[in-house]
Write a structure and sequence with these properties.
Two copies of one chain form a homodimer.
Chain A (H helix, E strand, L loop, with lengths): L14 H26 L5 H9 L5 E2 H8 L3 H13 L3 E5 L7 E5 L1 H17 L1 H4 L3 H15 L8
Antiparallel strand pairs in A: 1-3, 2-3
Helix pairs in contact in A: 1-5, 2-4, 3-4
The first copy, chain A, binds a DNA duplex (30 and 30 nucleotides) through helix 2 and helix 4.
DNA sequence: CATGAAAGGTTCATGTTGTCAACTTTTCAG
DNA sequence: CTGAAAAGTTGACAACATGAACCTTTCATG
């Protein structure tokens, strides 16, 4: 299945693909910057904002947070420590398995996260360049790219 | 897929846009992870790889690197220090303005950067889902999104 | 049931990234 | 010539990230 369904001999390294990869890199950098700025405007770091965003759907064990963000559990300990110290998050032991600590967003935490998300949607300058139809096309392409790969958030 | 709310007074927050933003966020996270992994496989950090990538087109002053990456110049000092210590990069004073230090990739540095770039092109699983035509469409959309915004690399 | 392996979190040591303020050197305007 | 401004560096400090060692809880197996 690794063998691509296209006809080219080296479909992964043709002109178009190279340029798309570069464009992607730029877009990724741009989004990353905007995300950091939006978080900083609410005196959150990027990592803290990411963790908080994960908790929108409900409490989550430390380990699962680490897996979702692809980092070591010990790293999450520190980030949650800081979020907890500022009242954005609580830690409580799981009833079923007392080894597990469930991290849950507080009122304040949820509010901050929702606010940040809102601000992001409006800050998306790049998208402003595209019309409705184009966004639809883009959406479909992105969907195709993401199904099959790891899709943590949604 | 409601089609009636397209008279958007708030074109930034319709259904499609919201979904595109979320998809983008996932794609950004995915690319970011892959980039870090690819860099780590060559014992480079993400930041070091980014600086090295910037030098592909030729030497660049410290300040310009900082501006392109949207961070403080003092931060670049440290990153370049480590790259220099490992022989990936050299610092030399600019002839015209001796305040300026031009950072240039060495043979080794260029090779590492090129290698990483190559590996990225092949590691791009998401792109594998798209055919040639679709990649072209995607490229055009990305181009549109990036022109007008800050376009550091290209 | 007892015991040891395994899993979930934390702690500690260490290194990298990032900011900010103070400083040196060089350039340039007056 | 003198002072302001620009380019880089340094030092102090916080956050992030990893890996190893450790504690507690769970669970499989004898």
């Amino acid at each position: 299945m690794d063998t691509q369904s296209t006809l080219a001999a080296t479909p992964q390294s043709d002109e178009i693909t190279l340029e798309v990869v570069d464009l992607m890199a730029n877009l990724v950098a741009l989004f990353h910057r905007e995300y950091e700025e939006a978080a900083a405007a609410r005196s959150l770091t990027g990592a803290q904002a990411k963790v908080l965003a994960l908790l929108r759907r409900g409490p989550m064990p430390m380990r699962q947070i680490a897996q979702t963000l692809s980092c070591e559990p010990s790293n999450i300990t520190g980030i949650v420590d800081r979020l907890e110290a500022r009242g954005f998050v609580t830690r409580e032991a799981d009833r079923q398995d007392r080894r597990v600590k469930l991290v849950a967003a507080t009122e304040t935490g949820s509010a901050a996260s929702a606010e940040l998300r809102e601000s992001l949607n409006f800050a998306r300058e790049p998208l402003a360049a595209l019309g409705h139809e184009e966004r639809t096309v883009l959406r479909d392409l992105l969907r195709r790219m993401l199904t099959g790969a790891a899709t943590p958030g949604a």
